[in-house]
Amino acid sequence: ADEPLVLGIETSCDETGVGIVRGHTLLADAIASSVDEHARYGGVVPEVASRAHLEAMVPTIRRALKQAGVSARDLDGIAVTAGPGLAGALLVGVSAAKAYAYALGKPLYGVNHLASHICVDQLEHGALPEPTMALLVSGGHSSLLLAPDITGDVRPLGATIDDAAGEAFDKVARVLGLGFPGGPVIDRYAREGDPAAIAFPRGLTGGRDPLYDFSFSGLKTAVARWVEARRRDGHEVPVADVAASFQEAVVDVLTRKAIRACKDNGVDHLMIGGGVAANSRLRSLALERCEGAGIRLRVPRPGLCTDNGAMVAALGAEMVARGRAASAFDLPADSSLPL
Ligand code: KG4
Ligand code: ZN
């Protein structure tokens, strides 16, 4: 067991996540979510999230250590999400990581949230090939990333120019009156609906449009207009059909562009991560299209796709294994940390 034993802390949004890994082996994944406290506001309220992290931080760390059955003294490092994310929320995790690292005399590793969404797949499918092609789709991001080195060289090929994919799911769910977060509910309704019922627009897929960028704001507006017109005419809204047709428009564009990026860059595998990677239709369509294109698909199980501490620990362990420099104790929480 000379693989690095690392504890990871994630507090970039509304989940207080603490994970412990040894190399590519997941030992603990403790999570406390404040999502229910945000539901009544229809979105994550930063101040509410920060306060919830503060309350959950120490108990969640203790729970993870107990789950893993390891002593904090045996850790080879403490990793933490340094950004991007909500400033106040990040600060709670970064402060906790510094305190534990300092008190225990362990090296501290500040990591990028997006890179850890990719690295988590090592816990499920073993070492990632390099370069890695990743499609990251969450409430805050929709990016195509090419990573020659997951611990330090992750290049954005394209990103959303307006709403993130998860944000579009959340907004459409609100239009349909389905509550927050919208992704899982739309996923459920869509299973009963017809994805070809309504032809919603596919953003940025014209001949002159940027190849790897996304746009979901026009789609969201198209869905809202369609639903409003329907209500105005006094008709019932076919929620399942709207959900299925909207979802199909999103995952059609995501998979098409991701596979295009793999082909253009000579990469024979595709990793999909972030909360939206939990979407069942995205998973099935990506698999179908990857198989057709001779690309190996790697998607972690849904629990590892949404924000968690294990992904931070996974990237921290990779940094320790590669002898990457630890962070200084003045490591800042950076809400817009670039890759
Ligand atoms: O990665 P994540 O947990 O947090 C960040 O945004 O970083 O992603 C949360 C997003 C939310 O927008 C949620 O609606 C979406 O992921 N999501 C889904 C599904 N599960 C979660 N979207 C579509 N289908 C799902 N099954
Ligand atoms: Zn995330």
TrEMBL record:
Subcellular location: Cytoplasm
Reactions this protein catalyses: L-threonylcarbamoyladenylate + adenosine(37) in tRNA = N(6)-L-threonylcarbamoyladenosine(37) in tRNA + AMP + H(+)
Cofactors demanded by this protein: Fe(2+)
Major location (coarse): cytoplasm
Residue ranges of coiled coil: none
Cofactor: how and how many bound: Binds 1 Fe(2+) ion per subunit.
The protein's role, per its UniProt record: Required for the formation of a threonylcarbamoyl group on adenosine at position 37 (t(6)A37) in tRNAs that read codons beginning with adenine. Is involved in the transfer of the threonylcarbamoyl moiety of threonylcarbamoyl-AMP (TC-AMP) to the N6 group of A37, together with TsaE and TsaB. TsaD likely plays a direct catalytic role in this reaction.
Assigned protein family: Belongs to the KAE1 / TsaD family.
PANTHER family to which the protein is assigned, alphabetical: TRNA N6-ADENOSINE THREONYLCARBAMOYLTRANSFERASE, TRNA N6-ADENOSINE THREONYLCARBAMOYLTRANSFERASE, MITOCHONDRIAL
Protein name (Swiss-Prot/TrEMBL): tRNA N6-adenosine threonylcarbamoyltransferase
Organism the protein comes from: Actinacidiphila acididurans
Gene name of this polypeptide: tsaD
